[in-house]
Model the fold of this input.
Amino acid sequence: MRLIDDFRWVAANAWSVRFNIAAAVFGGLAATLGVLAAKDVELPIGPVTLAIAFGAATVVSSLAAVAARFVKQARPDADGSE
Done:
């Protein structure tokens, strides 16, 4: 496996990476909610409502990441040869 030459720029600036991180966070929150609900922890909002919200946020973030993979991003140091 070989990384692209500017992988550091991509990791720091690409929207698809940011959306993937957001999806991972929302997925983690949904899993945490499941654990809290199993332990009968009182939540300020109903667990079903939170599960739907976190699930929807995960799906939207994942779809945004896929869409962002196809949108060209301007790079300040690009030489225009792409």
